[in-house]
Specification:
Strand 1 and strand 2 form a beta hairpin. The chain is an alpha+beta fold and about 110 residues long. Helix 3 packs antiparallel against helix 4. It contains 4 helices and 3 strands.
Length: about 110
């Protein structure tokens, strides 16, 4: 059975990179060594692996990767740090111009 990983890297400039791979050590080495000049992380090295989640189903791995790619950096860092209570807080809409904004919903 093949194993897949969704991972988050923290780049030297503080930005995060989210990816999916079937070989986490190889992929991390590729990011660290800058093997692909067009890769997001190439000019942001060194990178640090801050999160990885194992999956047995590639479809689930891709779904999870796509989901967290759209998260804010703060939310990704909360996930990486195991601050699961913060995930809900960081998910709440705080923009008064957004249609989901409801400051009285507590």
């Amino acid at each position: 059975m093949k194993t897949y990983f969704v991972y988050i890297l923290k780049c030297s400039d503080g930005l995060t990179y989210t990816g999916v791979t079937n070989n986490i050590s190889r992929r991390l080495e590729e990011h660290m060594n800058g093997l692909n000049k067009s890769c997001f992380t190439f000019k942001r090295r060194p990178v640090e692996l801050i999160f990885q989640q194992r999956f047995n189903d590639v479809e689930q791995a891709i779904y999870f990767e796509k989901k967290i790619k759209n998260w804010s950096a703060k939310k990704k860092l909360a996930l990486a740090n195991g601050e699961f209570d913060m995930l809900q807080i960081l998910s709440e809409c705080r923009n008064a111009t957004h249609s989901n904004y409801n400051p009285k919903a507590n």
